[in-house]
Design brief:
The complex is a heterodimer of chains A (about 220) and B (about 400). Chain A is an alpha/beta fold and about 220 residues long. Chain A is built from seven helices and ten strands. In chain A, helix 3 packs across helix 4 and helix 4 packs across helix 5. The model of chain A has no long low-confidence stretch (mean pLDDT about 90). Chain B has 15 helices and 13 strands. Chain B is elongated. Classes of the chains: A alpha/beta (about 220), B alpha+beta (about 400). At the A-B interface, helix 2 and helix 3 of A face helix 1, helix 10 and helix 15 of B.
Chain lengths: ~220, ~400
């Protein structure tokens, strides 16, 4: 089991009112699987991914990552866990605009203090794996949106994470490119033996996923 | 990817903003150096004069002002020297005549005069120059010479292209340069030293002198001797070394305080400018910083990144400011001393010493780094989720 949540709840306070982002969510994610969390906009998908990805703290309930109760971890331990074991793919790619594709992919490895040579070699390999061997020295603004998302996927794979969290990875892409990205994630999950959780409203993801959770108003409605 | 390289690229991404900020910092530094360099130069010159007449008592006419080595105001009758020599405890008493002039007729008031004529009885040169040597080929004026002989300071020699045996004309008198004083002293380097009688004749001082330098006998303190002279001779003031310094020290202290004040204000303004730019930069890159946080960058990495960026602005602003400030200090010094830039240029490191440049540069970088602390803390305290939600 790579990730597990028990009664996971996240409540936001906005002034006097409270918003239930995630409500008592229980889910289990097996290793090397592709899991989709499907739901409409505002249903709590991103909140759930942020909680699983240790970017946010639950109001109640627990997140277990690789059998470890993450509520017991301090900020540094959570950060190290993110750095070494979790890769993120964002809807808007979130590539650093001043860095080349190669440097963007090198960044997580640099943060993990890998040698310069190892960073360069691995980043080039990953970019080749996502079909961008000829785009290594291009900056994000010189890439198409599909290519940017591929760079983001390569970056997510940089430190050989156990888990990749992709938040609406096809949200900014046309249907053809979106389909290619989904296939790429599915293929990489097999090749790199990585678990992938995709939060999406794109039903096509559900079709290729090993397991699908449907979420509505912060609660899992269907498995 | 090195953090410095990343920060440089981030700064270059907003070229106009970065350039304006760097220029703003540079202007502040330029002002600090131009004002600080120039005034501190004169403070140093005046302080340097403290070494003159060490251990001696200086007698001037009552009501005269005495600024370090030079008396300004009324003169004394030459027979005062005889009276002084008769006071108990006096070993030697050497009269001197000071005439402060300017090499540029009609020039504006100067902080440091271009030339100063000093008349001293032949053979008593060391009272003023101490052990300063003459350049090879030179000698001191002779009492028996048929010509009016002078020794000039090295600065005057360079300024007017004079050598030993050059002739100069002063107040319609022809003078012969017989020696060039090789000295780092700003005062002595600008001095025309001649026998007292010659100086009195040229400047029409008759039997007057500017001051008398009195050496006490062994066992007699400066204070005791000064008190005796003032008690026994009417119309004179006898100044000990401490009293001479006490006249100028409050002024120097004020100058230094003003300099510190100007420096403080300009550094604060630079800090506010850099901080404002850093806050703008950080606000526009929340998503980037959140991404770094999400993929595992430590808070300290993000803080370091912001501080490095502001530090780099300080470094570039400081370098540019030091360059502009040095040129400005040179121009100001040249303007106020009526010395051509070409002559002033070799003294560039005397006006703005390298240590001062480095100190200002280091201070600018330090202040800029401090300016980055608040924006860095602001961003580091925000949660990833909050930052990811932002539009930028």
């Amino acid at each position: 089991m790579i990730a597990k949540t028990t009664d996971l709840t996240r409540v936001y306070r906005l002034g006097a009112s409270t918003i239930l982002g995630v409500n008592k969510v229980n889910l289990e994610v097996e290793e090397a699987t592709l899991v989709s969390i499907v739901g409409p906009s505002g249903s709590g998908k991103t909140t759930l991914l942020n909680l699983i990805g240790l970017c946010d703290h639950p109001t109640s309930g627990k997140v277990f990552f690789m059998e470890k109760d993450t509520s017991r971890l301090n900020d540094t331990e959570r950060r190290n866990l993110r750095l070494q074991n979790i890769g993120f793919v964002f809807q808007t790619f979130n590539l650093l605009p001043t860095l080349t594709a190669l440097e963007n992919v090198e960044l997580p490895m640099a943060l993990a203090k890998k040698s310069q040579a190892a960073q360069r070699e691995e980043a080039a390999r990953l970019l080749k794996a996502v079909g961008l061997a000829k785009r290594l020295q291009h900056r994000p603004r010189e890439l198409s949106v599909g290519e940017m998302q591929r760079v983001a996927i390569a970056r997510a794979l940089a430190n050989h994470p156990s888990l990749i969290l992709a938040d609406e990875p096809t949200g900014e892409l046309d249907s053809k490119t979106g389909f290619e990205v989904i296939n790429l994630l599915s293929e990489l999950r097999r090749k790199e033996k990585t678990t992938v959780i995709v939060a999406t409203h794109d039903e096509r993801v559900a079709r290729v996923a090993d397991k699908t959770y449907r979420i509505l108003d912060g609660s899992i409605t269907q498995e | 990817m090195r953090i410095t390289s990343m920060c440089l690229r981030n700064l270059l991404r907003r070229r106009v903003r970065t350039s304006l900020c760097v220029f703003g910092v540079a202007l502040g530094i330029m002002f600090i150096l131009a004002v600080g360099g120039t005034t501190m130069r004169y403070v140093t010159i005046i302080k340097e004069m403290n070494v003159f007449y060490t251990g001696d008592v200086v007698v001037v006419a009552r009501g005269s002002i005495f600024i370090e080595a030079i008396p300004i105001g009324s003169s004394l009758q030459e027979n005062t020297v005889v009276e002084v020599r008769q006071v108990e405890g006096v070993k030697t008493a050497v009269p001197m005549l000071f005439v402060v002039g300017s090499s540029a007729p009609g020039s504006i008031a100067q902080f440091v005069p271009s030339n100063i004529t000093v008349g001293i009885p032949v053979g008593n040169w060391s009272v003023l120059v101490g052990h300063a040597p003459l350049m090879p080929g030179g000698r001191w004026p002779s009492a028996n010479s048929s010509e009016k002989e002078v020794v000039i300071g090295v600065y005057l020699a360079q300024l007017h292209n004079l050598t030993v045996n050059s002739g100069i004309r002063l107040k319609n008198h022809n003078l012969r340069v017989v020696g060039i004083l090789d000295t780092p002293s700003v005062l002595l380097a600008r001095t025309i030293i001649m026998p007292l009688k010659v100086a009195q004749e040229i400047y029409g001082y008759g039997m007057s002198v500017g001051m008398v330098v009195v050496e006490p006998l062994e066992g007699v303190t400066e204070e005791e001797l000064a008190d005796r002279i003032e008690a026994e001779i009417l119309g004179v003031t006898a100044l000990t070394g401490d009293e001479r310094n006490a006249i100028i020290e409050p002024i120097l202290r004020d100058v230094e305080m003003w300099n510190l004040g100007i420096r403080g204000v300009l550094f604060s303004l630079s800090m506010v400018l850099v901080m404002t730019v850093a806050i703008m930069n950080v606000s526009e890159r929340k998503k980037e910083l959140a991404t770094l946080d999400a993929i595992g960058a430590s808070k300290s990495y993000i803080v370091r990144m912001v501080i490095t960026e502001t530090g780099l602005i300080g470094l570039f602003g400081g370098i540019l400011g030091v360059m502009l400030g040095t040129v400005a200090a040179l121009l100001v010094s040249s303007f106020y001393s009526s010395v051509p830039l070409s002559v002033m240029f070799p003294s560039i490191f005397a006006i703005v010493p390298p240590t001062m440049m480095l100190e200002i540069l280091a201070s600018t970088v330090a202040v800029s780094c401090v300016a980055g602390v608040i924006p860095a803390i602001i961003v580091a305290r925000k949660s990833i989720v909050e930052l990811l939600r932002s539009e930028h």
